[in-house]
Amino acid sequence: MFEASSYKLNMFQQCPRRYKFQYIDGLIDIYRKPRPYFTMGDHVHAALKDFMSTVPTCERNISKLEHLLREKWQRNRKGFTDKEDEKRWGEKALNQLRWFAQSQDLSVTPLMVEKYHKVELSTNISLAGRIDRVDQEVDGSLHVIDYKTGKMLSEPNQTQLHIYALILSKEQDLPISKVSCLYLEVGKFQTLKPTTADLDQVASYIIDLVDRIRMEREYSATPNNYCGTCDFLEICPNREEAAKLIVSEDEIDF
């Protein structure tokens, strides 16, 4: 059974060699490096998870959310170059959570928060993913929300959002009316309203891409703007070309 996920499929599309290093050669534990944007993102997600699932609505405020972030931060402070770098990322995280507390409806009780899902897509493909949050709308339909702590894209990642909707549609009888990226850096939503045709299309896309992965033999390195996030850059056969394409951490969508 091939286990597919949005992250895994996207990695193959971006760079087959990176996919091979991680999922076929199993080198990630050897080459994984702590990175400040992942550390920050993990802490923001963890703070929002506790805030929206364990804190009583009457106690939800900015101070409580800041406290949760500082608590999470003490558990992992890896990836920062120095104290100033850590402070910069810490302020970025605090600003995102302050916006959330000031602008969002804190009385909402999500249907699901940070839940891992795994469903069967076909007889030989399973589809997995961790969905940040699912709200139930007034009409009973579901709204899937993916928190983003990085740069806002000009257009939402339709494939990723439709994959989340597809996963949930196979678990729930309720319709999925909306799937959104919530960009905490700028305080904006990017929302899609998936149709049955959209979900059928993304299912076909996944099946076709898995077939390609299974048939792949070359796994060529494909330098791109995400090379700076690659743990395998030092062993990449195209590392010199890749190094020229690395962008600032502030430009990364994660």
Question: Layout of SSEs?
Answer:
Layout: E1 2-5, H1 6-14, H2 16-24, H3 28-31, H4 36-53, H5 62-73, H6 83-103, E2 112-122, E3 125-136, E4 142-148, H7 158-169, E5 176-183, E6 188-192, H8 196-215, H9 239-243
Parallel strand pairs: 1-3, 4-5
Antiparallel strand pairs: 2-3, 3-4, 5-6
Helix pairs in contact: 1-2, 4-5, 4-6, 5-6, 7-8
Brief sketch in words of this structure:
The chain is α/β, with parallel strands linked by helices. It has helices at 6-14, 16-24, 28-31, 36-53, 62-73, 83-103, 158-169, 196-215, 239-243, and strands spanning 2-5, 112-122, 125-136, 142-148, 176-183, 188-192.
Provide a descriptive summary of the structure in words:
28% of the residues are buried. It contains 9 helices and 6 strands. The longest helix is centred in the middle third of the chain and has 21 residues, at 83-103. Helix 4 (36-53) runs parallel beside helix 6 (83-103) and helix 7 (158-169) packs across helix 8 (196-215). By secondary structure, it is of the alpha/beta class. The chain folds into 3 domains: 12-31 and 219-249, no CATH class; 33-103; 110-215, Lambda Exonuclease, Chain A (Alpha-Beta Complex). The protein is 43% helix and 19% strand. The radius of gyration is 19 Å and the shape is globular. The two termini are 28 Å apart.
